[in-house]
Amino acid sequence: MGRRLIIDGNAVYEIDESCMRKKQEKMRKDTTAMKKKTKNAKKI
């Protein structure tokens, strides 16, 4: 499991890379589904 620490001034963030990959993949799927819906709606 990859984790990344980001230090920004006094704030420290821990990023779980596998979780981020899952979120990005879900976002891509949702975007693709939305494009297909929009494309089909225009044909009607």
Keywords:
44 residues, alpha+beta, 1 helix, 2 strands, 61% helix, 27% strand, elongated
SSE blueprint and pairings:
Elements: E1 3-8, E2 11-16, H1 17-43
Antiparallel strand pairs: 1-2
Description:
With 44 residues, the protein is α+β, with helices and mostly antiparallel strands. The protein has 1 helix and 2 strands. Strands 1-2 form a two-stranded antiparallel ribbon. The longest helix has 27 residues, at 17-43.
Short synopsis of the structure:
This protein has 44 residues and is α+β, with helices and mostly antiparallel strands. The chain has one helix and two strands.
The helix/strand class is alpha+beta
Secondary-structure element string: EEH
Numbering strands along the chain, what is their spatial order in the largest sheet? 1-2
Number of strands: 2
In DSSP terms (H or I, runs of 4 or more residues), the helix count works out at 1
Largest sheet: 2 strands, antiparallel
How much beta, percentage-wise? 25-35%
Low-confidence stretches: none
